Amino acid sequence: MPILIALGGLLLLALVFGPQLWVRRVLRQHGADRPDLPGTGAELARHLLDEADLQSVTVEKTDLGDHYDPEAHAVRLLPQHHDGRSVAAVAVAAHEVSHAVQHARGEPAFKRRYHLVRNLAWIDRAASVILLLAPVVFAFVHVPAPHAPWIFGANGEPRTERLDSFFVDPVGNRNIDRAEAVRRVFAQATYVADQTLDVLEDLVDRPDPPVVVVISDHGPGTEIDFDHPATTDLVERSSNFLATFTPGQPHLFDGFTTPVNVFPTLFDGYFGMNVPKAADTIYAWKGLQVNLFPVTVPGTNSR
After folding, report:
1. Contact (CB, 8 A) for 193 and 145
2. Annotated active-site positions, please?
3. pLDDT digit string (tens) for 218-251?
4. For residue 83, what pLDDT is reported?
5. 0.85 cut: is pTM over it?
6. Which of 25, 14, 113, 112 has the alpha carbon at shortest distance from 67?
7. Of 97, 91, 99, 107, which is closest to residue 48 (Cα–Cα)?
């Protein structure tokens, strides 16, 4: 029963916060001004209202969120959407004007929505307060972006991968050269990083930000031979991406920290637990049997 209650609570939180987080992320993604757009969000809203013969509806700037006020007959836009020339600005402006048009036409759907908004507005306000004050103290982000299959381009466009080499990294098994493999690795990593940064910005901008750790799966290993890893490209394979945000402990991690020592370092720095550090050892194998042995990889030191 406790598990079901916990799952129900998580589902409720997802339903309350999920749509807000998704909308904010999408608007942020498309919030950059574009020189090819001829006007601002406010100018587009004014144009659309005039085209709909709604000259009496005003367009105003607000800090209380984008909305249409049916009592004041006003379309209100946040500063970045009022003055901005971004895709987000014109999309939000057009959306709010559509509510003004619905109101002017007396559409039943708008009346129902307005009634719900007035009676349930407290839920949105409460959700915003909880979202801002929720005590997130730690975020661990595991990014498998360097790992094949490389299914995204740098802008999120889907790519087609051969199914018979779906999880194979070495280029020799994928019928491509190393230059093409590296291009695919960095294209996918660029897209995944862009998505990750949206979430991280929400976390580190909190009044009481949490500890954040972002770590990759491993290096790409485009030229590694899994039958003979110790004599092939272990430098690339063992090169992990690690980024940390440690409030109050800006120098907690040194210049070279392997994944095995991430949590001991955090526990020592924040809780004084003196967890013993493991040796920063890289292991390889021979053949297909599990027979790990330590190896020395050039370049795997503080840098």
Report:
1. yes
2. 96
3. 777 777 777 777 777 777 777 778 888 999 888 8
4. 92
5. no
6. 113
7. 97
